[in-house]
């Protein structure tokens, strides 16, 4: 989504016909409104960063302190060491021949969980959605349009409706308290929105390219690749 | 966008077709098989199961027992929170959907004027929508804290006594509306509007200008009709999103104070996972699905009256599916 926001083309002025005085007046309105919106959207971020550098006493003072009197970067060190971000604890190994133990941080913790889920889910999402979208965009088969409507229809089914049986399904599969429910569905086409977007994208690629490749003996998977 | 698919559909793959088309059809099915499997396992199966469960009494531990329509009866006639939570959700949606659409459209129009700094503003507006929901809720609870919160402090500077926000039954829902606006106004909804605005042909504005239309008239008579498919798309998605409101109530207010933010889906969640009333919650889920489908259908039916598709070659917004 962030890429989407960043990659939109730059916009041309809407009315090239207005005079420079009018343009100046518009500019004042634009920067006033945009400034107010920026304050609304950005202030919570500023507040979070500012508070993250405050001493505990400054957090709850009234009137609120906007710029901390002392910048305590130490807070980040404490957060990092207090919570299992990258390590899930320590494993002790006895060093043979001695009375000593070696404490090795074990790999795990919050970020590792997030990392595993993100990498595997995104990978599955991209691969499977691409295959499915390619199938919808480039092949003729019975019920194609009906099945594509099904893809769109799944967009409007609220997740609340399927949450209980999904929970039971995961329970039956023994997936509760594992990361699997967060990963595995992504490998089966994942979000219908991506299938939809990718299909639109494939349909924008000229078919001549496919046909040329086919003449050269490439199979459909190679064409996709 | 359906034009190109229509062209290809002109050579249909019928029974008894040539081996090549049949092979192609099989290949096509192979490509979409991940979706088909996933749909069957993770959507169709749970959907059908929840329909079955909605006619049963089921607490996870013992097997479901068939009780017919009792769950539905209970929802409509005995459970006071059913209608109450539905009403609250409707009120929330009535606030958040129009405001959200107006704010996103306003922001998109602003960013479409081509002033210097547009890229920076666009990034800032977009930032909240990629903030994890938990973080957004926690920050806003803090900002809206009635006695020491920053929002009420800023209000006091301009002489307005700040309301008690999430701690009062009157202001809890508006607080969540503000939170939702912060979270979504500059997000994908704004981006979709921006794409729609950029698809409006410049000539139309120039023609309207020459005809003496002022800015307001140009907005109502050129912009709004031309981006109406985009408005429609955003409306459908926003209504579904607003009715499904859950996370903010779950993380932020736990349905309180005094049930002020006890929304429908939260009621469903509590029934299922706190009281283990899986059958009853399934019935609630199906009622919800029917409500959502009905509202979506009504919007599709109503779009004929106000949504303008600029002929066959239209691709403005391009989200009409």
List its traits.
heterodimer, A: 225 residues, mainly alpha, MetI-like fold, 2 domains, two-stranded antiparallel sheet, 11 helices, extended, disordered N terminus, B: 321 residues, two-stranded antiparallel ribbon, 15 helices, 68% helix, globular, disordered C terminus
Q: In terms of per-residue confidence, which ranges of chain B show pLDDT below 50 for 5 or more consecutive residues?
A: 1-14, 312-321
Run of helices and strands of chain B: HHEEHHHHHHHHHHHHH
Q: Going across the major beta sheet of chain B, what is the strand order?
A: 1-2
Q: State the CATH superfamily name of the largest domain in chain A.
A: MetI-like
What's the pLDDT, averaged over the residues of chain B? 84
Mean pLDDT of chain A: 76
Helix content of chain A: 55-70%
Count of helices of chain B? Answer: 15
CATH class of chain B: Mainly Alpha
The tally of strands of chain A reads 2
Beta strand % of chain A:
5-15%
Strand order of the largest sheet of chain A: 1-2
What's the overall geometry of chain A? extended
